[in-house]
Write a structure and sequence with these properties.
The structure is a single chain. Helix content is 35%, strand content 27%. It is α+β, with helices and mostly antiparallel strands and 244 residues long. Strand 1 and strand 2 form a beta hairpin. The longest helix is centred in the last third of the chain and has 86 residues. The chain is rod-shaped.
Amino acid sequence: MSNGELLSIEPLELKFPFELKKQISCSLQLSNKTDSYVAFKVKTTNPKKYCVRPNNGIVLPRSVCDVMVTMQAQKEAPADMQCKDKFLLQSVKTYDGASPKDISADMFNKEAGHVVEETKLRVLYVSPPRPPSPVAEGSEEGSSPRGSVSENGTVNVSDFTQPLQVAKGFTEQPEALEKSAEARALISRLTEEKNNAIQQNSKLRQELDLLKREGNKNRGGVSFALVIFIGLLGIIMGYLLKRT
């Protein structure tokens, strides 16, 4: 931390976890230790490589301002991961009520008689955090099975059979998949047979209804003919009786 008269700056080293083709950011915290308004400005030796937001501003009395420094994505890694870039933070007292719009280059001109406080910041590249290893502790990927020897010189065969049990589990998996496929085929066949049976049942019901309707028509026709026959027979019998 820089303990200047105007601003305290944290940190004094900008540490970037370097990764190729990726933007990386680092933050600065500026603390105003005075009862005055303090203007600041951030410069760098490589302005095309870095983006500073805000690169200038006003820190109110007894307050804090955060500055974000972003390094553009890099296509190549520097030799030995060393960086020669540097930053310069300038600060100066200003009048009460000043705003960032009131900041000018002349405010940081020492030749004009302004008291300018300057702090140099270094840039460091650090290795990015590594993700936790998926391999459990005590196990080595690709290691060969080993047997253990007891105190009396006998070899513990169970250490060698464990990989065989693992291999057996892998061979049983295709059998389970094959049984599952057979079960799905059986279910599909039974479903198809059920649908066919339902269609056959519906067809038989339609044919039965048709036969019933035709039977009712036939019965109605016979009855009407019988009535006509009886009527004619009655007329003939009446005619014969009249003649006699």
